[in-house]
Specification:
binds 2-acetamido-2-deoxy-beta-D-glucopyranose; 11-stranded antiparallel beta sheet; 15 strands; disulfide bond; Gamma Fibrinogen, Chain A, domain 1; alpha+beta; signal
């Protein structure tokens, strides 16, 4: 009966211990952590050959220093102590049972058995209490470890989450940068082409500005000349750099200051250029048999045959010192010229008298024009030096006839074959004789100091 009791208590104790241990075992399993493909536990590490698990464990050990003392090592020691104690108890229990059995066999009193049973019961209760205490402690440790672990896990999770987030952001940023780079390259191209266009435009602009400045300068010159006109006859002569055209402004009379812009033909090649052409003949298309008035104002077209006009010529040449050049060409292809360093013309009231000095040229050793101030004559204005004749009527055209002199470049135009023995033709005596009519002529002036 007593043996049965002892056995029963032993069974109960063992059962209790096993249950407690099973609970621990179950909790142990709960400690296992899953990280990626590897699993590990902090209490009893199962070394599955997973380096990541060990790493993670170390991270966990380092992280919260407050729970560091509750290491797996200590936990193990605690467990082993309890096991030792339990083993010790079991050994003691076994010994006493054997002793009781022997005493029973020897005929000892049941009292002693009871006493021993009571002692056993007391020890068992103590052990139970102790075991419960240990279990409680273990539970606390476990909870702490669990808490720690889960915190580590949570941290790890958060870390990995934030890493993922960072990675995603990085990716986004990278793609964004790539996109920007692409955009940038196209933008750079656009910018470069724009720059090129800008350069071209600005160079064009500067060219335009230069032209504008020139024009402005011209206009200013004109304006200043107009405004400075006071009382006297003033001529404005402005030769632009255009190769064939010059503009001459002629301002006549003081009170009603008439401002004329005169188109003239320019010779920019002969002997350094700068010549204002006032007479030109080359194909007989223009009739030169005109009266005083027409010779005064001029006729013909500046691009063709023409006479610029005595008034314009007077206004122009009275601006300063001028030179005169006469270009001649015969029907045989010969050309010649006569140049006078000084050329001046009087006004209409002095019959547009011409004064010449400094003859040179190939059209004869001496001048075919009277240089000493011959008046201009037309069929209706006889200012020649012939007492009993009208040279303009006999020789035709308008000219500075002497009596009647060695030249007349405004005579009748005779074509080739009809140009010989013509006294009223285009004549320059010292070039082709008194009755040879020339093929083309040109008379022009330019400032003496050009
Ligand atoms: C438990 O017993 C073992 C061997 O019996 C011994 O090595 C160990 O140190 C003991 N542990 C404690 C905490 O007494
Ligand atoms: C029980 O045993 C203890 C010592 O083991 C002794 O002191 C005590 O008197 C005993 N009691 C009885 C009733 O025998
Ligand atoms: C874990 O520990 C922290 C502080 O150490 C505590 O605030 C928290 O309540 C604990 N969590 C659990 C589940 O025990
Ligand atoms: C755009 O391109 C230019 C030159 O190619 C470079 O200097 C600049 O850093 C680039 N900017 C970006 C945002 O890529
Ligand atoms: C610039 O000038 C060049 C030639 O002078 C011309 O071909 C081009 O069209 C001009 N560009 C602009 C923008 O005016
Ligand atoms: C004379 O030349 C001008 C200008 O070159 C031309 O217009 C005209 O037709 C020509 N006339 C004759 C008759 O050749
Ligand atoms: C268990 O062992 C520890 C130390 O090894 C000791 O302090 C404790 O008293 C023992 N408990 C029992 C019930 O024997």
């Amino acid at each position: 009966m007593t043996a049965f009791s002892v056995s029963w208590w032993l069974f109960v104790l063992l059962l209790l211990w096993t249950l407690t241990m099973e609970g621990v075992e179950k909790r142990r399993r709960l400690h296992r952590l899953q990280h990626g493909q590897c699993s590990y536990t902090f209490i009893l590490p199962e070394l599955d050959g997973c380096p990541e698990a060990a790493d993670a464990g170390q991270v966990g050990q380092d992280s919260p220093p407050a729970d560091g003392e509750w290491s797996a090592e200590k936990l193990k020691r605690l467990e082993s102590t309890m096991e030792n104690n339990t083993t010790l108890f079991l050994l003691q229990l076994e010994n006493s049972i054997q002793r009781n059995t022997r005493r029973e066999a020897a005929g000892l009193q049941s009292h002693a058995v009871h006493n021993q049973t009571a002692t056993m019961l007391e020890i068992g209760t103590n052990l139970l209490t102790h075991t419960a205490e240990q279990t409680r402690k273990l539970n606390v440790v476990e909870a702490k470890v669990l808490n720690h672990t889960s915190r580590i896990e949570i941290q790890l999770l958060e870390n990995s989450l934030s890493t993922n987030k960072l990675e995603k952001e990085l990716l986004l940023q990278t793609s964004e940068i790539d996109r920007l780079r692409d955009k940038n390259s196209t933008q750079m191209e656009a910018i470069e082409s724009l720059e090129k266009q800008l350069k071209v435009a600005s160079s064009n602009n500067t060219a335009l500005q230069r032209q504008q400045a020139q024009l402005l300068e011209s206009v200013h010159t004109l304006i200043s000349m107009v405004t400075s006109t006071t009382g006297t006859h003033t001529l404005i002569s402005m030769v632009t750099r255009s190769p064939t055209l010059a503009i001459h402004g002629v301002c006549v009379k003081s009170s009603e200051c008439v401002f004329l812009l005169l188109k003239v033909y320019c010779d920019m090649e002969t002997s350094g250029g700068g010549w204002t052409v006032f007479q030109r003949r080359f194909n007989g298309s223009v009739d030169f048999q005109r009266g005083w008035g027409e010779y005064r104002t001029g006729f013909g077209d500046v691009f063709g045959e023409h006479w610029l006009g005595n008034e314009a010529l007077y206004q122009l040449s009275s601006q300063g010192q001028y030179s005169l050049r006469v270009e001649l060409r015969d029907w045989e292809g010969n050309s010649a010229y006569a140049q006078y360093d000084r050329f001046s013309l009087t006004g209409e009231r002095q019959q547009y008298r011409v004064y010449l000095r400094g003859y040179s040229g190939t059209a004869g050793r001496q001048s075919s024009l009277n240089t000493l101030g011959t008046g201009f004559s037309t069929r209706d204005h006889d200012n020649d030096n012939c007492d009993h004749c009208k040279c303009a009527l006999m020789l035709t055209g308008g000219w500075w006839f002497d009596a009647c002199g060695f030249s007349n470049l405004n005579g009748i135009y005779y074509n080739v074959g009809h140009n010989i023995r013509k006294l009223n033709g285009i004549k320059w005596h010292h070039f082709r004789g008194p009755s040879y009519s020339l093929r083309s002529t040109m008379m022009m002036v330019r400032p003496y100091d050009f």
